[in-house]
Amino acid sequence: MEARDILIKPIITEKTTALMEERKYTFRVPLAATKVEIRQAVEQIFKVKVQAVNTMRYEGKVKRLGRTQGRRSDWKKAVVTLKPGETIELFEA
């Protein structure tokens, strides 16, 4: 996988915005992505040094529409902590 394939999109909520003050940035990543791949992708794309990567897997919710029942996709979230003095400019604007 290429670095751009690893980071699907940033997750921007009130909670993740508050975490940015602590140098923690949140991204949606593929289920198969490992912590090492996520670290390398963030360092390559944003030119920063990563201190830690924490990942969480989420099961998709069961949803109904009338009589039919479906399921949302499972997904994975990564919280990337940067080394002191590092920031990602994209989020600061």
Write the layout of secondary structure elements.
Layout: H1 3-6, E1 9-10, H2 14-19, E2 24-29, H3 35-46, E3 50-58, E4 62-65, E5 68-71, E6 75-82, H4 89-92
Antiparallel strand pairs: 1-2, 2-6, 3-6, 4-5
- The helical percent reads 25-40%
The secondary structure category is alpha+beta
Report the average pLDDT across residues: 94
Number of helices: 4
Shape by Cα distribution:
elongated
Strands, count: 6
Could you state the order of secondary-structure elements as H and E? Answer: HEHEHEEEEH
**Rg, Å, rounded:** 15 Å
Distance between the termini: 29 Å
What is the beta-strand fraction? Answer: 35-45%
Largest sheet: 4 strands, antiparallel
Give a brief rundown of this model.
The protein has 93 residues and is of the alpha+beta class. The chain is built from 4 helices and 6 strands.
Description of the molecule:
- This protein has helices at residues 3-6, 14-19, 35-46, 89-92; strands at 9-10, 24-29, 50-58, 62-65, 68-71, 75-82.
- With 93 residues, the protein is an alpha+beta fold.
- The protein has a four-stranded antiparallel β-sheet with strand order 1-2-6-3. The chain has a two-stranded antiparallel ribbon with strand order 4-5.
- A hairpin with a 2-residue loop joins strand 4 (62-65) and strand 5.
- The two termini are 29 Å apart.
- The mean pLDDT is 94.
Overview features:
two-stranded antiparallel sheet, alpha+beta, single chain, 93 residues, four-stranded antiparallel sheet
